[in-house]
Amino acid sequence: MLERMIAAVLVALLVPSAALVFAADDRGTLVRLDVARPAGAAGRPLAMHWGAGRRKMTQAECAARAVQAMGVKEKFIAAASDGHGAVFGHTENAAAVVFALPRRRGVQVYVVVAGKDSRQVERLRDSIRRHVLDGPSSARVPAKIVNRNAKRGRPWPALHLGWGLRRLSRAEFATAATLSMQRQRLQAAARAKGSTVAGSRAGARAAAFYFQTKPGFGYVSIVGASYNSSEAEWLRNDIRTDIFAKRLPKPFAVILCKFKNRPRYEPYPPSFYREAFTQAGAGKGREFDYFRQVTYGTLDMTGTRVFGWYTMRKHRTRELAKLKYPHDRSKLHDWGVETARAHRINLKPFHGVIVVFNAQTDSGSAGGHRVVLGYKDADWNPTFNCHEIGHGYDYGHSWSARPDVEYGDPWDVMSAMRVFTFKNKFGPNGPGMNACNLHKIGAIPAPRIWSSNKAGSTTITLAALNRPQAAGHLMARIPPAAGSKSKTSYVVEFRQKKGWDAGILRDAVLVHEVRGNGVGYILSRVRGDRAAMQVLPGQEFKIPERRLTVKALRFDAAAGTAQVAISIGK
């Protein structure tokens, strides 16, 4: 059942975004990905083509043939084996990598070529692949061939490759790879069977491949391509980390329960809850969208299912008066689980269980991944729902410092209900999450984090956390000074009064203190003053004990960015 659920999740995740053409021949599979550069987008067009095949040869033989194909047959500027089973090479306008994975009686060969001219890239892919799979080989071919010096300025794209053998099914791979590429702001496309997932954005491409060695195990290979070598490396690293860690959707089972003495009353139809918590509500601005958008896809409720309404066989509303909260909230949740099992619902595939009743009860986290949510009208509160589901995703409460106050960060949903909200027809909504909480779950990609503990002054551009498409870092981190025994670091973020943050006071820079316990505490320039937690243009925030000054220079509302000066040790 879990495999079928993941397959269903994958279908929900895949967004047609490119011309992806598959064709088979006697050598294996050819794949072509052509994505036109968006109008007005920065960077040069970049096409990526790849092919695969199986042959009875060793990795060393494959590497020798690849060097020969690139360096001798195609006269690449340079072609060289990396000594670990892969060969890299480049022309003036294209780059290629060939690698072979061991299998019984031979190897699985992959050929990946990227460059600005799609026809040239496809021709090179075909030529190299034919030679590696079926062409002649020579024992005299060196491990490295350099035909001439390249022009300055690196006009060819960079390719970065990573692979590994993992306990991972094809369906798990396809889902994790698709989610990861979406987190990297890549538009994803995949083969129907999920053995290949490709992603694209202007000037950058990524492809992930799965080769099964036995049921539940397989080789995972990732190639990142970009005209910026660091970007290609970051794509490779982040996507590989996500896939290897099996960062999959975390769906809930939502159990709708009716008390035995209220069998005909349903506060809302099941469709109301499906739109709130499942992909049926995608794009409707409800709880499902909240987690997907605020965490950049890291926390994804895709695969959540709603069951019921079911009438409980034992429990009546009169029992509620005997319960004492919050301790007995777990009993309420147990009633829901009991009802689900009575209707033969398998809860094992789900990350957690949400229970809703048709009468007013206590509500909130019941510990672990267990949540009881409100009844209707004023008792149904989207901000409260997201807060409690956040507990179901293992988040604790957020804090303010000096003095330390739990529920003290009004810009973070884990301080609800003492937060800034906006209202729609479903009730209070927002705010998003602070950068500390996003960083804790790995939601912010490494290249979007500015980090330094070196003395000096620098000016950086911060993109608003709720505008990840904006150019700039999503957070700045100042670790403890070198040689210091302190475990306290500082995080700077920018929030814009839009989207899930529409209820905050105004666009503002915020500063958090992250202590050795890993918890972030929002700081204020004036003790106990929430408005003074904001750093507005022209204002400074000084932290004397770290000799740190954060100054907001200017905000660009249209771009969704803030220029921030950070001075350390002055």
How would you characterize the overall build of this protein?
Strand 6 (94-103) and strand 7 form a beta hairpin. This protein is globular. The protein has 570 residues and is α+β, with helices and mostly antiparallel strands. Residues 1-42 have low confidence and may be disordered. An eight-stranded antiparallel sheet has the order 1-2-3-7-6-5-4-8, covered by helices on one side. Strands 20-19-28-27-26-25-23 form a seven-stranded mixed sheet. Strands 9-13-12-11-10 form a five-stranded antiparallel sheet. It is built from ten helices and 31 strands. The protein folds into three domains: 2-244, no CATH class; 252-394, Collagenase (Catalytic Domain); 435-568, no CATH class.
Q: What global shape is seen? A: globular
* Quaternary structure: single chain
Give the helix/strand class: alpha+beta
Give the strand order of the largest sheet, numbering strands 1, 2, ... along the chain.
Answer: 1-2-3-7-6-5-4-8
Biggest pleated-sheet summary: 8 strands, antiparallel
Strand content: 25-35%
What is the alpha-carbon Rg in Å? 27 Å
Number of extended strands = 31
Q: Unreliable segments (pLDDT under 50, ≥5 consecutive)?
A: 1-42
Q: How many individual domains?
A: 3
Write the layout of secondary structure elements.
Elements: H1 2-13, E1 19-25, E2 28-34, E3 47-55, H2 59-73, E4 78-81, E5 86-90, E6 94-103, E7 106-115, H3 118-134, E8 144-146, E9 158-167, H4 170-183, E10 187-190, E11 196-201, E12 204-214, E13 217-226, H5 229-244, E14 252-258, H6 270-277, H7 287-294, E15 305-311, H8 329-342, E16 352-357, E17 364-365, E18 370-373, H9 382-392, E19 399-400, E20 405-406, E21 422-424, E22 427-429, H10 435-440, E23 449-451, E24 456-463, E25 475-478, E26 489-495, E27 508-514, E28 520-522, E29 540-543, E30 548-556, E31 561-568
